Amino acid sequence: xxxxxxxVRIDNETMKKLEEIAETMEFQLNFKISKxxxxxxxxxxxxxxxxxxxxxxxxxxxxxxxxxxxx
Length: 71
What we know:
The chain is mainly alpha-helical. About 75% of the residues lie in helices and about 0% in strands. It has 2 helices and no strands. It is elongated. The termini are far apart.
């Protein structure tokens, strides 16, 4: 299975932060982490927090409201 990739430009300060995240993950996990893997982890984590969790909460609330109408 082939993945599609794109190039992203980030400023030097953000790159330094990304490198620090990767280094910290390496220390915590005790194996080499690339900057791209660290970036993927950050994006997945933020996506879950900002998009998926609120979406799931809204769906649960809508389902709960819908089941109240069935009473």
